[in-house]
Amino acid sequence: MTDSPTNALATGASDLVATLEDGILTLTLNRPQARNAMSRAMNEALQQQLAQAELDPAVKCIVLTGAGNAFCAGGDVKGMAAAGDGTVGAMTIDQAIHRQRLNQRGTAGRLFQMPKPTLASLPGAAAGAGLSLALACDLRVMASTAFLTTAFARVGFSGDYGGSYFLTQLVGSAKARELYFLSERVSADEALRLGLANWVCEGQTLAARTREIALRLAQGPTVAYRYMKENLNRALAGALDECLDLEATHHIHCGQTEDHREAARAFVEKREPVFQGR
């Protein structure tokens, strides 16, 4: 278990540690003894923290990371094996499906759709649903020793938490099928080449590099980021005319903000703008 920093937030579960500093909400998956495999307590706490962060004006950027030497191993396969049932347990099939849908929408779905930048910081492996969570974030920074793997085929699952959607969007259908069917490891350097990672750094500098990126996002124009993200998300599936119309609406709206006026003044004065998020 990680130590509790002075800026820690209550999550209601030891499996998730949350801190808020300088507008950066850092959510740390905290089961290092199990490579941060997802537990029910972790999942519920993560959903709660993300829901609160989406509406909290103090949160400008969200960082998702893992304790120890892993990001997230996905579902707790050992726990599934011990229970003898990886998905249903005492519930009916319909109840299990509904719970799974809520879990996915409250975690991967919210990371992808919330109007704030999200950054995954990977100290080590991201596998299965852990990979899906990382891909749900807007940006990813990886330690050079970290790797990615879908892993689902190895445990007889088809995949969850949006990985099939995110991976297809990032690398194309053919490569996504290869990675799903064969479950091979993707090194950090290969992830960077494929566009699955935005940055790769040495493990000992990962925390500093993550903070550098996150702080830059937290100090950025939050209103513009909100609309940039909506534009980009809609562009994935929307028609061109819809994207053009949406961009026009958002562009004019951003032009009325104090952040835009401050940036224009800063440009003329040859200095860095100071954004206020309004």
Please give the structural blueprint.
Layout: E1 8-9, E2 16-21, E3 24-29, H1 40-55, E4 61-66, E5 70-72, H2 77-83, H3 93-113, E6 118-122, E7 125-127, H4 129-136, E8 139-143, E9 147-149, H5 163-171, H6 173-182, E10 186-187, H7 188-194, E11 199-201, H8 206-218, H9 222-235, H10 240-255, H11 258-269
Parallel strand pairs: 3-4, 4-6, 5-7, 6-8, 7-9, 8-11
Antiparallel strand pairs: 1-2, 2-3, 9-10
Helix pairs in contact: 1-3, 3-4, 4-5, 5-6, 9-10
Characterise this structure.
Helix 1 packs across helix 3. The chain is globular. The protein folds into 2 domains: 8-218, 2-enoyl-CoA Hydratase, Chain A, domain 1 (Alpha-Beta Complex), CATH 3.90.226; 222-269, Lyase 2-enoyl-coa Hydratase, Chain  A, domain 2 (Orthogonal Bundle), CATH 1.10.12. By secondary structure, it is α/β, with parallel strands linked by helices. The chain contains 11 helices and 11 strands. The strands form 2 sheets. The chain has a 7-stranded mixed sheet with strand order 1-2-3-4-6-8-11, sandwiched between helices. A 4-stranded mixed sheet has the order 5-7-9-10. A hairpin with a 2-residue loop joins strand 2 and strand 3.
- The spatial strand order of the largest sheet comes to 1-2-3-4-6-8-11
Under the CATH scheme, the architecture of the largest domain is Alpha-Beta Complex
In total, how many domains does the architecture comprise? 2
Measured between the Cα atoms of the first and last residue, the distance is 38 Å
Q: Report the order of strands and helices.
A: EEEHEEHHEEHEEHHEHEHHHH
Here the CATH topology of the largest domain equals 2-enoyl-CoA Hydratase, Chain A, domain 1
- Gross geometry: globular
CATH class descriptor of the largest domain? Alpha Beta
Residue windows where pLDDT falls under 50 for at least 5 positions: none
What is the count of helical runs? 11
- Annotated CATH homologous superfamily of the largest domain: 2-enoyl-CoA Hydratase, Chain A, domain 1
Provide mean pLDDT, rounded: 92
Number of strands: 11
